[in-house]
Amino acid sequence: MSARLLSASDARLARPAPRVAPVACRRSVAAAAGPGSGPPTILVTEKLGDAGIDMLKSIGNVDCSYDLTPAELCAKISLCDALVVRSATKVTREVFEASKGRLKVVGRAGVGIDNVDLAAATESGVMVVNAPNANTVAAAEHGIALLCALSRNVSQADASMKKGEWKRGKYVGVSLVGKKLAVMGFGKVGADVARRALGLGMEVIAHDPYASEEKARALRVRLVTFDEAISTADFLSLHMPLTPGTKDMFNAAVFAKCKKGARIINVARGGVINEPDLLEALENGNIAQAALDVFSQEPPVDNPLVLHPNCICTPHLGASTVEAQVSLQIAALTPPGPALAPPPSRWPAPRSEVACAASGGLAADAPLTRHGSRRRASRWRSRRQS
User: Is residue 367 situated within a structural domain?
Assistant: First the structure.
């Protein structure tokens, strides 16, 4: 049976925490910062742009403390009402326990929330906020940039030139026109990559068990099985979340089924590729080249893929454009303001950008395609490729 995956827009949580009434969550958050308690303290552990910091300063007192160790974060968190992170800070159960009930909001200035312990957030009554759509264009553009760099050996040729070399014959590439690209995960980013690849003259197929045929036809993309995608594609572009079901999805068995000399691009999550297996596939030629923006450990330590001549690596730059950073900060940081303010007479329903951990990581009115569902997660786990 072919492997199945959840697209980034379809599922973020493989095992959602038990649902608790989100109204109770919002009331407890608001009550903690009620009249007379003073402005909230907001801890920022990773660098944000000026627009994001200014927005936070309009809400409360901002403490920018970067590169904290886990112990230092636990020591500071009990003095903070809100925590704002990107991808490097791990908000673990220990962090929630160390907050001693004061922490009310965790803002993730980005898409994925796999660096936040949602179960612990639920138990602590903490709201978890992310920005699911803000960096779609930036991530798609970076995927296309890596696709082009991979096909024409741009990175390797540049490094050679900087050594004073002139080796035109060594870095002969391949054309993209007429080549087949398999988009693995046909959510927002995957669909944007498909649009741009079609503009480059590529044939685009996609695998995503929850993408609609109507959406694919509208984009002139053909939905296929997992096995057909990996066995016929010249290039594979990965755009699925990291869940227990997708971890190590691309492993030795999958690489052995890939078209000989295929090239793989990953701007999704590092853990979806088994890195030792990818290294072996590059060595034996099953995979000709790889381009990685994400790694199972970030930053990577003693990872041979970083130094491999047929692997282009970038330091998780998918969302790293000026425009995307501003959008991410505005999307992720707007909700903590109301969450830390005195309660109004009637709370509005949360929007899909707000993932309330106390409702099992799902916003009350968010469509199931936003964070997925228990049924979908269980279907994925039961049908994962062995």
Answer: no
Of 370 and 171, the structure prediction assigns the larger pLDDT to 171
Structure tokens at 299: 């930053």
Q: What is the number of alpha carbons within 13 Å of residue 211 lying toward its C-beta?
A: 32
Considering the domain architecture, whether residues 271 and 241 belong to the same structural domain is answered as: yes
User: Do the domain assignments include residue 232?
Assistant: yes
pLDDT digits (tens, 9 = 90+) for 61-109: 999 999 999 999 999 999 999 999 988 899 999 999 999 999 999 988 8
Rounded mean pLDDT, 360-367 = 31
**Predicted confidence band of residue 368 (pLDDT cuts 50, 70, 90):** very low
Give dist(CA 94, CA 69) in Å, integer.
13
Provide the sign of the torsion angle of the four alpha carbons 192, 365, 378, 298, taken in this order: positive
How many separate domains does the chain show? 2
Q: What is the mean pLDDT of the chain?
A: 80
Do 154 and 298 lie in one domain? The reply is yes
Catalytically annotated residues: 269, 298, 316
Whether residues 143 and 188 share a domain: the answer is: yes
- From 345, 341, 347, select the one nearest 33 (Cα to Cα): 341
- 311-313, strands of its sheet edge to edge: 222-223, 203-207, 180-184, 235-238, 262-266, 287-292, 311-313
| Same domain assignment for residues 194 and 302 | yes
Q: Are 353 and 130 in contact (CB under 8 A)?
A: yes
- Domain shared by 104 and 157, yes or no: no
Strands 354-355 and 127-129: antiparallel
Whole-number Å distance between alpha carbons of 34 and 81: 12
pLDDT tens, residue by residue, 95-105: 999 999 999 99
> What is the domain-level CATH number for residue 50?
3.40.50.720
**pTM over 0.85, yes/no:** no
Closest CA to 107 of 308, 292, 295, 339: 339
Cβ partners under 8 Å of residue 218, min gap 6: none
Domain span including residue 44: 22-134+321-361
